[in-house]
Amino acid sequence: xxxxxxxxxxxxxxxxxxxxxxxxxxxxxxxxxxxxxxxxxxxxxxxxxxxxxxxxxxxxxxxxxxxxxxxxxxxxxxxxxxxxxxxxxxxxxxxxxxxxxxxxxxxxxxxxxxxxxxxxxxxxxxxxxxxxxxxxxxxxxxxxxxxxxxxxxxxxxxxxxxxxxxxxxxxxxxxxxxxxxxxxxxxxxxxxxxxxxxxxxxxxxxxxxxxxxxxxxxxxxxxxxxxxxxxxxxxxxxxxxxxxxxxxxxxxxxxxxxxxxxxxxxxxxxxxxxxxxxxxxxxxxxxxxxxxxxxxxxxxxxxxxxxxxxxxxxxxxxxxxxxxxxxxxxxxxxxxxxxxxxxxxxxxxxxxxxxxxxxxxxxxxxxxxxxxxxxxxxxxxxxxxxxxxxxxxxxxxxxxxxxxxxxxxxxxxxxxxxxxxxxxxxxxxxxxxxxxxxxxxxxxxxxxxxxxxxxxxxxxxxxxxxxxxxxxxxx
Amino acid sequence: xxxxxxxxxxxxxxxxxxxxxxxxxxxxxxxxxxxxxxxxxxxxxxxxxxxxxxxxxxxxxxxxxxxxxxxxxxxxxxxxxxxxxxxxxxxxxxxxxxxxxxxxxxxxxxxxxxxxxxxxxxxxxxxxxxxxxxxxxxxxxxxxxxxxxxxxxxxxxxxxxxxxxxxxxxxxxxxxxxxxxxxxxxxxxxxxxxxxxxxxxxxxxxxxxxxxxxxxxxxxxxxxxxxxxxxxxxxxxxxxxxxxxxxxxxxxxxxxxxxxxxxxxxxxxxxxxxxxxxxxxxxxxxxxxxxxxxxxxxxxxxxxxxxxxxxxxxxxxxxxxxxxxxxxxxxxxxxxxxxxxxxxxxxxxxxxxxxxxxxxxxxxxxxxxxxxxxxxxxxxxxxxxxxxxxxxxxxxxxxxxxxxxxxxxxxxxxxxxxxxxxxxxxxxxxxxxxxxxxxxxxxxxxxxxxxxxxxxxxxxxxxxxxxxxxxxxxx
Lengths: 475, 475
Description:
2 copies of one chain form a homodimer.
Chain A: H1 13-17, E1 22-25, H2 32-42, E2 49-52, E3 58-59, E4 62-63, E5 77-80, H3 87-97, E6 101-104, H4 115-131, E7 134-136, E8 142-144, E9 163-167, H5 170-182, E10 187-192, H6 201-210, E11 216-221, H7 227-240, E12 243-247, H8 252-262, H9 269-279, E13 282-284, H10 287-299, E14 308-312, H11 315-327, H12 337-346, H13 365-377, E15 383-390, H14 400-412, E16 420-426, H15 432-444, E17 449-450, H16 453-471
Parallel strand pairs in A: 1-2, 1-5, 5-6, 6-7, 9-10, 9-11, 11-12, 12-13, 14-15, 15-16, 16-17
Antiparallel strand pairs in A: 3-4, 8-10
């Protein structure tokens, strides 16, 4: 094994993401450690879980070991929930026990801005490198690796998917996984890496470039410590897989906040733009946009152009949705005459039917289905966007029409190969469960769902630009 | 009464907003008219409600009249839910009955883009002007006037407030009232005016400038028919009351959609910006921003500057909130040393307490209250922004801390006179009722609440610019 400055930067990351056994250090009954044990159990971790606490006893049906050294079997991953001052001793024990990675929930290091915290962090890094232990954090939530039953939150999905998330903030990691889960996203590997004293974003990007389980890499980054290496690694990664990055700390005061959060040097926003653009990474501005890009890269079918057939909405909602769509660079061509003819032939009477784009397909299920299929098969349209705005209708409490429309889309989607995206927006907060169920139906049909037409258009535009930059002859 | 081209443009609007009696034309058991009757009953309309339908019978406990002429008493407001081709006859009956205003849910006029529809609309306008009847719509929801129990939706709040909404789209009017209601906004008068064949946005602005019940005028406009008059009326209105406008149809295709929605000529976006800026109106881009400005003008205390004390959040959420706040033109000064001293004196130990701005006041209720008060009373801060992001915490399902923090704000707010704004953002859609209850507590304390820190900062920035433009010596 490589040690010291020559350590291979992805060394032991396999063991961290797929440990055979996990020890939780500081796992008393009323500690953060207890919740790590609970999360591992809830996530179906199959290997041994070893709670460690000097008081001993039992925790969640498991015997508590008084020290790491007391554990008979090997330990691949240790999770530290003990005070910062005790961590150097723990690193020493980990080295002796040949623990491969130590993930540290423990805070109180360089992020405090105090010399003592910084010195303590330097000390554990030196000890870990000498001892061949990789450090994750400190001041982080650590690893969520659903294929292997590793998690730091009990309610995260147990099934895995193709998205990796490299997230400097633990709170944002939790928020993002929960938000993405509602929208059908499942993860290959998520890592909250905090102060990044040893394992950092560049190591993780390098690792994920080779990871067969990961098809999309997303990241929330407050700052990097070695900009040159980051640029190089990002370039290699982005050449192989799409990369989406939310960079925070872009303002002077945001950077100061980042520094007191994860001791990050945020760096100039202009430099970041140049680095991300140069590598062909997609840059986003909010957590919601980051999830929108996960949904888009995972679920949106290939898009060949910008000619939109828009359905749904209703008067004023359609006007606003049209503005949002056109502002994002799309066009809404008039309904072609052969489509109009085909549609009119489906109706007993065309009285009052206004065949414009956007179109309100507020008709019988059979006619709505036939019309949606006709529009999706027409060479004049590149994609369909559906705008479902709940709360605009005066007297139908559940806006029943959007449920019927969902039937149509779920039925027509496998019959065509054009891309479809759906925006579900609602003002009826007391009906949230109803919309959640509707979202789930689209998610199960693998139709990408967004929270507004503006969000959908922004995401599809970024997706198109990503592919245009790769496909263009001049590139 | 003025008739013909000399009609006073605000004539009869008093009667439309405060009718002594209402007739609903086309009020059979399974018609839109039925829902108008239901809405009037649910909203506590005190005068007589007359359903009219050729079949006669009973509806919701009321006798159905076979024609308008059969009603014995006077009728101030009539609501048309009959087909377009029957409307000319109805206008004639209204004139004979001396009905003051006819609001038309009926569509099928100029918005169809067909010559027949346009001609029909011209005809009813001519007849109404000759007969002294004001027309609202057609193709609209009409009037919500809670002080007088007039409504087009049964679930709108029955109590009134100071905000007027002039909304060309009925769906958007419904969405906006429901959204605003959740955030504590109550209305003086709301009007969905559709095709604006007679009563238009300029008439309504002229009327609302004089309306003692209205302190803030908000509007969703797809297009105006007489730009010169609009500019003049808007100038007079904006000189007296704040005006917030969402202009849609800003793109070519959005304008086409607006035309097929309410037959509006959308007009150049550049011209609109010049007109709104010139008058000192606040322009917004989305329905959500329109409600954010209602909340801000109604609830935010006067703001003297841009120095923010930010509380709440947590690591990554605070970094993003800081970026949003600074990007919107605010500053987050360091915690002044006298505040730090005062805060440290409240604590047994300052171990681990990082006194930065944003600050996580995750302490005992007494200490949190004392700290919030100290910060709010300090001359170094102009306002406090609280960032409550649910779903970032790993193991506290209800993010209990934000409830405790709400206790603090509700308690400290009456003790100080500085402005406070709260952003409540959540990823936990299954807990919507919990957040709704939390929002209600702030709303009841008259603390302005937003859906994200970025939304809050954008709204407060617009509010400050509005006042700066008026207060500046050079204006």
